[in-house]
Amino acid sequence: GAEGSTLMSYFSKNQIQALKPKITFSTLRDLQCPVLQSNDLQGKPEESCGTEELFEWLGAVWNQVSLDNKSSSFLSTYSCPEPNTVVEKAFLCTITGFIIPEKIIQLLEQLCCYFGEPKLAYWLTLTVHGFADSPVSWRESEHGFHKGGENLYNFVIFRNLDYWLQMAVGAHDDCPP
After folding, report:
1. Whole-prediction pTM
2. Three-state DSSP class for 113?
3. Is residue 10 part of a domain?
4. Rounded distance, CA 93 to CA 114, Å?
5. Domain enclosing residue 93, as ranges
6. Res 35: pLDDT
7. C-alpha span between 44 and 35 (Å, rounded)
8. Which residues fall within 8 angstroms of residue 174, CB to CB, at 6 or more apart?
9. pLDDT by 10-residue block (mean), the chain, 177 residues
10. Number of domains in the chain
11. CB neighbour list of residue 69: distance below 8 Å, 6 or more residues apart
């Protein structure tokens, strides 16, 4: 009766709000960025940084950790890997919510258009995090929360449209296919 329709309207209204992703933008000025070469995953001393160094650097950027290695900092003495370059402006966009794979593909395609004109960026990244306490991960396995609940992948796309794909899962999870 009336109670059922009231519940239905409550859930449909709240589900729509829950599924609407939250988007935040920020501009990072004078950001130290690692120098990358698309054909060099390991990096070369004085020429380019490797994938692991990039992944660590991305973590610092996402968490707004200072990259200048000040000895007075109690939080972090992390510094940007060498070689690096200072980028006058970098854009960070965070989309939080339930996002279907088709939307991620769409985002990747739109990001690749950024290499058109003007050709300012040498590379860009798209990182997709699963929820730390998600019940499932890749394949048919349950997702092991244990310590950090790592459950993410990261695309690094270069101007020539080469790309790297990095994946991180917890120690007790199956590796992605």
Report:
1. 0.75
2. helix
3. no
4. 14
5. 21-97
6. 94
7. 10
8. 137, 138, 139, 140, 141
9. 60 62 90 92 91 91 74 68 90 87 90 79 88 64 58 89 84 59
10. 2
11. 77, 78, 79
